[in-house]
Amino acid sequence: MYLAELDPDRIVIADKASQFDPRIGERRQLTRRDVNSVLRRAARQANGKYRVLVSRFADGKPLGNFRYYGTRPDDPNDTVPHEHRRELRAARVFGAWLNHDDSRGVNSLDMLAQEQDRRYVKHYMFDFGSIMGSGTVYEQRHRAGNEYILEWKPGWLTLATLGIYTRPWMHISYPKVPPAVGRFEADAFQPELWKPEYPNPAFANMRQDDAFWAARIVSRFDDATVRAIVEKARYSDPRATDYVTQTLLKRRDKVLKAWLTQVNPLVDFALSETGELTFANAAEQANVATHAGSYRLQWARFDNLTGIATDVDGELTAGDRRAQAPGALTARGAAPEFVQVRVAAVHPAFPAWATPVTVHFRRVGNGWRPVGLDRLSESSRAPAAVRRPGVTP
Length: 393
Prior knowledge:
Blueprint: E1 2-6, E2 18-21, E3 26-29, H1 32-39, E4 50-54, E5 61-64, H2 86-89, H3 91-98, E6 108-115, E7 118-125, H4 152-160, H5 201-204, H6 208-219, H7 223-231, H8 238-259, E8 266-271, E9 276-281, H9 282-285, E10 294-303, E11 308-318, E12 322-324, H10 327-330, E13 338-346, E14 357-364, E15 367-374
Antiparallel strand pairs: 1-4, 2-3, 5-6, 6-7, 8-9, 9-12, 10-11, 10-13, 13-14, 14-15
Helix pairs in contact: 3-6, 3-8, 6-8, 7-8
C-alpha cells in the first residue's frame, strides 16, 4: 500500500473507463462529472491535492471470502476448521491491540494462486478502514471494541432499569486530539475484554497458548518500530503522530502483560550435544514480569510410536535458565532417539507458570533438534475468550 498525493487537474479518464450505474442497471462510460462527485466527498489539502491510498490487488483468481468457521469444500488443503486454526484464533490479540473491530469474514478474500504448474488457495485479510480511532468514514464509536453491535444482556439491563444502568464504556473519557486521530485511547483498554463488532467463532475459541503466541509477535514491535510505522501515515499535525504512537505503545504493553504471563512463558529451548539445556523467558524479555525464582525439570525417554514417556531420575531444580540432562539420556551410543523434558517455573505472582512446558527433542547427527512443544495441560485447554452463541460469516 502506498500513500500519495493526487492533483485533480492531472486526472485523465481512459476511453474505456466505465462504472456501474444503479439508475439504469448497467455499466456506462465514466465521465468527468463522476470523478468530481467522488472528489467532492473527500478532504482537499491546502495545496489543492488529495491524499490517496494505492494498493496492488492480490495475484490470482478471486474465490470469494473465507469464513471464521468450517472449511472450504473446494480446497483439498483446507482440512482444519477455521475456528480451530491458531492464526485465526490468535488474530483476536492483534485486533485488540489495534482496535480492529471489523474483524469478520466479509473483510477477507481467497485467491486461487498459481506457481508454474501448481495451483493453491491463498488467504487474505482486507479492509482495515475500521481500526484504531477510525470508524471507516467517521471517528470510531464509543462502543467499538467494548461491546458487540447486538448484545442482549447490557441491552436488557438498560431497558429494565429505564436507563439507570449505563454501560461502562459510556464513561470512558477520550482526550482532545487532532481530528485525524478519531476516537482511540489506551487508559481504559482491557485486552481480555476487547470485542469485535460481531461474535467471531475463531476468537471465541482462542486459548491461552494462542494468545501467548500472538503476544510474542506483538512484543517484537519495539518503540522505535511503532514510531516509524506511525510516521509512514504522514499526519499533517505532528500531535497526531505523537498521540497515536504513544497510544499504540500503551496498548501494546497492556497486551503483553495480559497474555505473556497467563501461561508458562518459557521459550527458545535448545539442547546441546553435551546435554546442556538452555531456554528463555518471554515475559522477562518483554519486561512484564520479574525473574522466576527457580525452575523444576523432569527428564524422560520418549517413545514416539506409543507416546509413552518414561521418567529418568527424579525432579531437578535449577536456579537459572540452563540445566544439565542426565547422562543416561545424552551419552553417545546409549541416547534414545527422542528425549522429553518438562520444565515449570516458580514465581509467586504467576501461579500458572507452575504448569510445565513439555518439550521433545530428537537426536540428529551429533546434536538434538526440538521437534515438539506443548504449553498447556489437558485441563487448561479451554478457550481464553468467553464462548458466546452465534457466528458471523
